[in-house]
Amino acid sequence: MLHYVRRRKAEVRKSLRKATRAGGITLVLGAGVSIGRGLPSWSRLVRQLWEDLAPPRDLPDWLSHEHALPHPLAHQILLEEIEGATRWEIASARGCKADDVDPSLVRDKMVQKISDKLYGTSPNESDNDTLGILIALLKQEQKATDCRITRVITFNADDLLERGANRDTDAGREPVLYPVARASFHPRHGRCAFGRPAINVYHLHGFIPRSQRYGRGAQDTLVFTDAEYWESVANPASFANRVMENALQDTTCVFVGMSMTDVNMMRWLGLRFTEFTDDRNALYAYRGKTPAYAFKKTREAIGRHYWIAAAADDPTRFIASHLERRGVQTVALPTWGTPFKALMDECFERDEDSHPVATIHG
Asked: Residue 63 and which of 11, 71, 203, 298 are 20 to 30 A apart at CA?
């Protein structure tokens, strides 16, 4: 029987509401936030790229079913195969050997293929889908004098979030949201939209903006193959490691649109759990407390992050059980849409008298 610390839904929701109203929030976003706009999920994107290969080829047995549970790195492995096929396509068109093809040409071709899938059709824009709700929330918080959202971390390469939030502002000079997609890009500070600092959006797996207003794309940093996946995290001081580990340390992370089964996310949570536990155990030992006392208090203290998920995302609560042990509490919604909006309204409700919104004086 699964070991899951069953808390009443109302208690977890109350805990999330208390954390969000206190501030210091990092929103961590996955592909699920954009699916309502017609963008493919990570799994579907990989399948579409594979299906477009010439000549056509069958999917591997372990990825041939939409709801199969493949190897945890299946999609990265498959993308590496697609990259190899792309190299062969270029070599055939140029009449040369595959090994003689410039890697930058392969990269550009892969970026173009992914971009076509992301932006091939006009998005189904709505204020009531997950992305629309998040855009409204971020605009509300950015213009407030006590913005409670410290940063946004996204694993998506598209710019739908930034475009939606910056639609009525000068995205280059006074953005609501400002993309930071590589180690050499500094976050934006100082006066931006509404006379307030922008909220920085960290793209950990690269950035392919459709809008040219940013001039801050990071197509060459896209993480899609297995080799690139590990390269992005092999260095303890890498951009992705620093950003995610800092967020887990100094803020409350709220995960939205993520399956929470990504190997790297599990690694980040596991490393944080181990460091936190070791430090607390040392602290309580120094104070002369028993190991049982230390275990109990450590478990109580680490649970400061939240995963928002629909019931269908984790019907057996297997993932929730594991996340609970890693310091992430699960807020289960019946569905997305209206229930998600109600939760965000509840968590980020503002009293206009005590939380004024900035105004720009002429």
From this structure: 203
The verdict on pTM exceeding 0.70 is yes
325 token code pair:
């042990």
| Residue range 54-92, pLDDT digits in tens | 777 777 776 666 555 566 677 778 888 888 889 999 999
CA distance 297 to 284: 9
- Is there a domain that residue 361 lies in? no
Closest CA to 33 of 209, 156, 208: 156
Q: Is position 135 within any domain? A: yes
Q: Which residues span the domain enclosing 319? A: 9-37+126-347
Is the link from the previous residue into 55 a cis peptide, with omega within 30 of 0?
Answer: yes
Tokens in use for 36? 């309502």
pLDDT of amino acid 356: 58
Beta bridge pairs of residue 201: 152, 179
Asked if residue 356 is part of any domain, the answer here is: no
What is the C-alpha end-to-end distance of the chain, expressed in Å?
64
Using CA atoms, how far apart are residues 76 and 86, in angstroms rounded to an integer?
15
Residue stretches of the chain with pLDDT short of 70: 1-8, 62-72, 211-218, 224-226, 352-362
The total number of structural domains that make up the chain: 2
Q: E strand or H helix at 3, and its extent? A: none
Computed on alpha carbons and rounded to an integer, the radius of gyration of the chain in Å comes to 22
Q: Which amino acid, one-letter code, is at 118?
A: L
